Amino acid sequence: MKFSYEGIGTLCATFAAEGNIEKNTPVKITGNGTVAACSDGNAFIGVVSACRAGVATVQLKGFVCLPYTGTAPTPGLQNLVASSAGVKTGSGTDKVLITNVDTAKMTVEFML
Length: 112
What we know:
The protein has no helices and ten strands. The protein has strands at residues 11-17, 26-31, 34-37, 46-52, 55-61, 63-67, 76-83, 86-89, 95-102, 107-111.
């Protein structure tokens, strides 16, 4: 049985967006109240849930499911950073709670 944690503890905030940022893109703060898409290896503050007309809604807390690249993360506490296609294991960031890794779909579910 697969459990869904979607919606638990979700907290979103609105930021100015540098460019058009795709949904489910990890973002970083680039200035006062402004976010931009992360580059490969960047620490991220959240994940874009919507972006339109220079404004991004960013999920800062709660569970998300994103594609991963490289070595499959493992459930439990682990460091994740942004990658070219979602996230990957990395260092220099706070650990996140990983609840599910789907190696067939190459996705990871974790708590921001």
